[in-house]
Amino acid sequence: MKLTVRRYRWSDLDTILALHRICLAEVGLVPGDGVYYDDDFPRIQEIYLACGGDFLVGEVSSRVVAMGGLKPVDTTTAEVCRLRVHPGFQRRGFGAAMLAALEQRAVELGFHSVVGDTTLNQEAALALYERQGWRELSRQRVGDLIVVYGEKRLVLPAVLEH
After folding, report:
1. pTM higher than 0.85, yes or no?
2. What is the DSSP secondary structure assignment for residue 34, as one 8-state letter?
């Protein structure tokens, strides 16, 4: 199975919202737990695309099975948000492929680093970030959950001198 990564389209909204809910339920995150929210989905154009970020989806055989967004924090840093892979398609390298695509896109958009967060009970996400060279910045208790914050400095293309 090959994952094809492309930019989000408005017609993806219902599919990615369902994917988000499935993935969070799989790790025990639910509305009201202090970290769960989904109010950004109807505003992807505004929150991710129109302000210098991006939102990508990953497809296998034309079915959306993965996603992730880049939200600018400031002129040099973007936040990786909504990194999800459908449980039926996990453990195939799709999370790593999506994270790599988001990091590459951040470089293309001119960002020098990416930040993100996950929870301690999202063990696969924690392991993925560590394998991809992220470093933990801090932890914070939110309700019954521990949120782990991390960052990665991006390798920018060398500037050629004339």
Report:
1. yes
2. S
